[in-house]
Amino acid sequence: MKHKRFLRDGVSISAHFPLLFAQTMDIQITLNRESHIILAEGYGRRWNFWNLSALGILLGLAVAIGGLWYALSRPIPIPSDTAILGVISPKAAKQLIADHIWEKIPAICQDLLSTDSDWPVICGLTTSGQSFAIAPRWIQGRERVRFTAGLAARSGEVVGETRPFRYTSALAWRGLAKQPAIELQSSAIEKWLGLETPSTSTSILFRWNGRGFESDLKLPPQTSPLPAGDIALAITGSAWEGLPGELFLDASNLPDRKQWKPLPAIERYAVWLGPDRLIQGRYVGFAEPLNQETAARILGMSNVTERRSITLPDGSVSFERLLPTASTSTNLFGKRISDRGELIELEPRFMLVSNASTTLDQSNIAPCGITYPWLRLSQTALADIIEPSLPSLQAFSQNGHLAICFE
What we know:
This protein has three domains: 39 residues, no CATH class; 134 residues, no CATH class; 127 residues, no CATH class. It has eleven helices and 24 strands. Strand 20 and strand 21 form a beta hairpin.
């Protein structure tokens, strides 16, 4: 226990200091009025063998990790038309991928994922039908290795234009959670679908969260529910104006853009599929209420005509078909049968088109996220697209970003 006492005006200051072997010593110091004194006490430590050993081990680990990262980050050429890059460890693949989905994975990727490694394997698919896999060189598969760079190796032949890719990029995608991740190249996928796209490619990264995928693509929340169709989507007015070409109109069996341009923008759209997986009915929701004039135009585009009798000069009666017209005495809303035998139900905010012998489900789907979904694909629709049996899928806004969940 140290004790210090300071006095001024020429009075002495005494201090008691602990010394080695518990010895003590009194120090008497006499100061004048204007004098100053600073007493300081410190302790020092010498580096011993264990300190130096720990420091050496830490430096060695840093050098080893840095060297490993450098050796795994050497650029490897992959096809320039790569559309999908998936990263998953073999251990996680065995837990998450069902047998019927496993059969759809390219053989090159199956080969490396069949090991027991916890290191990620990257599987790539191109728009031209090529596939390849990238993994550390110590993960040995039956497929022949085509290219090596540092400690990373690629299986699968690459033909045509290439671009560099680094194995460590996939490690950064997964982060500390070690969850599977998928990167989509939007321009390559759009080209795959036959759309005109700019030369720049936008990548969208999806990370698995245990139930679905979360992405880095910004998406505002959807404010209205979707009908419970096999394929249902919400479209904002600005998105409707910017739809590429006639893709949406063709896929949804709607008339061309010129006919729809004077009408209110489509806000929601849904398709019901029959047992034969053909479109059985459609729902079209409008951003603004229709009036009698726009209702007449829509009925005309939907092959709904009015039958009027005509008396010919010889006295016989014939009939002609006239397009519906708006008038103050006619209500064009309600149910009608089109010239094709389809049931048309038109209301101010939506239109239903179905076979006359079927009834469409007009209920809204229950969202699996915290907001209404932007897109929904039923199990039947997913089976038509990617064949494996998967639960129904919803795409929605999660914290302002695109997320996907399975019902």
